[in-house]
Amino acid sequence: MISVVIAAYNTEKYIAKCLESLQKQTYTDFEVIVVVDGATDKTLMICEEFSKRDRRFIPVYRKNGGLAAARNTGLEKCTAEYVAFVDSDDYVDPNYLELLVKAILRNDCDISACGYVLEDENGNEKYRTERKSELMEKEMFLNNMLIPLNRSYGAFVWNKLYKNEIIKKHRMRFPDEKRYLFEDHYFNYEYMKYAKNGCYTSSNAYHYIARKDTGIIRGITGNNRNIEKWLHYPEVFDLILDDPYEGFEEFKKQIKMMKVWHSSTAVRVLAYYGKSDSPEYKNMRKYIKENKIAYLKTPYIGAKKKIGMLLTCFAPKLAFRLWSI
Questions:
Q1: Which residue has the higher pLDDT, 217 or 275?
Q2: Which residue, of 51, 121, 144, 198, has the fewest CB within 10 Å?
Q3: How many Å apart are CA 70 and CA 103, to the nearest integer?
Q4: Where does 9-154 show beta strands of DSSP type E?
Q5: Distance CA 86, CA 6 (A)
Q6: Which residues share a beta bridge with 85?
Q7: Computed from CA positions of residues 94, 206, 33, 82, in that sequence, does the dihedral angle turn out positive or negative?
Q8: By the 8 A CB rule, do 159 and 114 touch?
Q9: Burial class (CB in 10 A: 0-12, 13-18, 19+), 62
Q10: Cβ-contact 160, 206 below 8 angstroms
Q11: What is the mean pLDDT of the chain?
Q12: Where are the alpha helices (DSSP H) in 54-163?
């Protein structure tokens, strides 16, 4: 059996399509735990209607606490052998759950991932993953989440299937979103510490929808009240880099480079909004300068990001204007 966790906040326009795609699954032994995170629209009502028609759909209402808190609430209620995550504004193919669970059983592994299709709100395809199916030792599986070769299957949780036994045994949870972003990276890192291996299946069964109102820079310009969050923007990576676990050295190198880029993003935003006197800003800028040579030498990082990092070093406000277009 699979427990599917969905965190939902004000997605009344999209949640029905998401739930319908799960209702049509060829693998039928599942439950869907929809954690409605303080939604103020009709999201809860839509989920309750699904629950009346299909008992496999279980709506749970909680006070708004953010994506990580909602997912953690869902994890507490999971009863199945396996756990999957789906975002409330995305949808999946009818064979999504079947191919993930069959991949785990066929390969005798602890986690499976599938490819995904990135679409805009009108259903136009932007790109899709293009990898061959593969069984990997845990370090390689973790490394390949971040290396963007052949469209990496990503460090997010929504196209993967996990063993609930591992999650419960090690009391795994997403870090507090009120402070940390990129909580998926940390969750996957923690999970793979206790996994033996992982597999990728080439089917692009997950459909990730890129909304116009979800961009990083667009979000900060639209709501300056969230400016304080940028002071801690890359700190989740420190949870990984400072972890005493011996292993995953290549992955940690990649995380270090991710911290450079996301520190650059935060520095641009903070400089533009007049927070350049904060100690967090100064520490991030120092970190960028200390690691800029290694960042420039990293072969899988594109020229645009390298130029953006350099420009941020010398003119963060100008870099913000260029990258917010």
A1: 275
A2: 121
A3: 28
A4: 30-37, 57-62, 82-85, 91-92, 111-120, 125-128, 134-137
A5: 5
A6: 5
A7: positive
A8: yes
A9: middle
A10: no
A11: 90
A12: 67-77, 96-107, 138-143
